[in-house]
Amino acid sequence: MDIPKISIIVPVFNAELYLTKCLDSISNQTFTDFECICINDGSTDSSLNILTKHSEKDKRFKIISQQNGGVSQARNSGLKASCGKYISFADPDDWLSANYLEVLYDTIEKNGCDVIASENFFYDAKTKKTHIKRLPEKFYGQKFKSKDSKKKLIPVLHICPCWGKIYNAGFLKTNEIYFQKCPMEDVIFTYDILTSDCSIIFIKDALYFYRKNIEGSATYNLPKRIYDMVECFLFLKKRLNEKKLYDDFKNAFLAHAAKCFAFEFEESKLPLKALKPIFSDIKNYFFKNGELLLYPDNIFYKARILLFQFCLKYNINYAIFGKTLKQTYYFLSGKIK
After folding, report:
1. What H or E segment, with its residue span, contains residue 228?
2. Which of 3-7, 210-214, 327-331 has the least mean pLDDT?
3. Strand partners, 123
4. Pairing between strand 34-41 and 95-96?
5. Across the strands, what pairs with 8?
6. What's the predicted TM-score (pTM) here?
7. Over residues 135-146, mean pLDDT
8. Cα distance between residue 34 and residue 283, in whole Å
9. Which helix (H) or strand (E) holds 19?
10. 101 burial level (CB within 10 Å; 0-12, 13-18, 19+)
11. What is the distance between the alpha carbons of residues 193 and 247, in angstroms, rounded to a whole number?
């Protein structure tokens, strides 16, 4: 039996509305030497029927059905069943550009690193608009391998998703890097990669289409999302301490945490009264000793973190100023919010 060069892993749970578009975009790749492992994670809609019909048309698609255990368990099942030299992930409500696998495969083969990450399109399901979030220009084409160089990546918010990347399967399995059962599991997965002995390159090509603002997804602004964010960073802090890496990565980790928390306070629909105790908890959990932070180059990110620190210092609920800062940013940048 021929071993495919790439294993694509797609966790599926009640994704009938968007699944066909995702599967078609994988079938239509210009790079053809792949297997697609679809994990039916206890779907109760027609997702399994869609998967079955697609696998009958395209034998590169394999289906694993299991009881619902969440996206982390589903992706891990796919990882353990995969046999490709490289791994890539796709979510069932997203889709890929036709040359997604070809560009990522050619780049990782050429550079011999552990991870290649593309830029991504973000499609807003509410507004029907698409945009790209870009890294600073100097990040592209640079091989991040040393600990100090990878620290600079951590405060950059949009590097965390597991999709939009191709991974050396041997690297993931040798280092036993799997998904943890935790809110915002992608963040933990990416930290496990960045804090290991790996090399990563970012390319400027935008190749992956991420569908945001779908009800029930991580990007949908539910009131509980800010609590999930706190739980995620508490889990991550504990994990870094267990690996004896917290002191090394502390400044970068806390800068990332401050930026993410600031964003959640700006976007949260919870009233100021409800956000105040959450802000106090964040200070006690992460920032009670006035820790130093590693500031990213992005001016707005830096301003956000500085304002967050100011509020921490004087015990002011960040949401009071943060929402104004957000609106000012959208006004000055010409974006519509």
Report:
1. helix 225-242
2. 327-331
3. 130, 211
4. unpaired
5. 36, 88
6. 0.92
7. 92
8. 47
9. helix 19-27
10. buried
11. 17
